Amino acid sequence: MAMNNIQISLNLDEDTSLLTPNKKTALYRIICEAINNAIRHGEATEISIDVSVGQGFATGCIRDNGKGFDKNSIPKDRQGIRNMYMITGILKGALKIDTAVGKGTVILCRIPV
Known about the structure:
Blueprint: E1 2-3, E2 6-12, H1 21-40, E3 46-54, E4 57-64, H2 80-90, E5 94-99, E6 105-112
Helix pairs in contact: 1-2
């Protein structure tokens, strides 16, 4: 799928029926925020999204080729990343962000099924 010269690929596990509507919504919100950040702040041109369910967890992995960022210097008025951590925490899951300036970003979210 291409949007404004941005390539987005989606790999969605067929077994997402194991997720409750609340957990599907939570994953959706986290993925949307990650995409928004990749385009708006990271200036990414390629984003890949993988969602899988297995071994008791739903896992969402969002990768982009954007400019990355310093995790220690997120402005306090930016709530998107904080909201991703909050949503994941409420569901007793884990969120990991792997990024560095000039290296793109990988966001991994794991939520118990």
